[in-house]
Amino acid sequence: MKALACELPATSGVPLSRWSAAEVAREVMERGLVAKISATTVWRWLSEDAIRPFYHRSWIFPRDPNFAHKAGRVLDLYEGRWEGEALGEGEYVISAAEKTSMQARSRRHRSQPPAGEAQPMRVEHEEYERKGALAYLAAWDVHRAKLFGRCESKNGIEPFGSLVEQVMRERNPTPLRIACSGSWTTAPPIGGKPRSSALRESGLICGSSTFLLMPPGSIRSRSTSRWWSARY
Q1: 3-class secondary-structure state, position 183
Q2: Can you give the pTM of this predicted structure?
């Protein structure tokens, strides 16, 4: 049974990406290895074994020949370093991302509060009004565990600029500059120009989802002045 659980399902001609405990139990019974066994027993046996086939890790093949160099810059920032030097107190590493096409819904009926031990809080489940699709943009202050988020009607450079302005406004009253951290992600062009060039010319960011905020005039800022944002 353990050997079966460690095999890829395709080896057995099963159209699955990976086995579940219930599927392993069903397969060993169909093969006649056991007369009867439950998924709970399968799970217990597998969890006690040194090889745990139900654990898996997702990964992708790097396609960029400069992946190691670009990824290294971002990983250095996550460790609190930039070009071999430790970040200062007034410098912030921000990681930003977006979630598009989120269905916005509003319940037709208000939720009812609990009424004693016999009645828990009641929340309308079936009926709702559609409010269209929204894009959620978020920026995470990596070293200070603070999240900045906002909803927009669509994604793009202007909504992302609003997120950057929100971070700049709420993160620190002192004006900050943006420097590029490097990125191993790819994105479609903007207005016929490469995404990195279009973003840099717009005065926002240089095509990276992780970026560094730093006080203007600092040595680090001067050494990376080619990435400064004209807007800030």
Answers
A1: coil
A2: 0.55
pLDDT tens, residue by residue, 98-131: 888 888 888 888 888 888 778 889 888 778 888 8
The answer to whether the CB of 177 falls within 8 A of the CB of 221 is yes
Between CA 129 and CA 104 the distance in angstroms is 9
Backbone angles phi, psi at 98, to 5 degrees: -140, 150
SS3 46: helix
List, in sequence order, every residue forming a beta bridge with 151; answer none if it has no partner: 136
- For 202, how many CA atoms within 13 A lie in the half-sphere containing its CB? 21
Encode burial over 160-194: b for 16+ CB neighbours within 10 A, e otherwise: bbebbeebbeebeeeebbbbbbbbbeeeeebeeee
DSSP-assigned letter for residue 227: G
The C-alpha atoms of residue 96 and residue 199 are separated, in whole angstroms, by 14
Domain spans, the chain:
2-48, 67-96+153-227
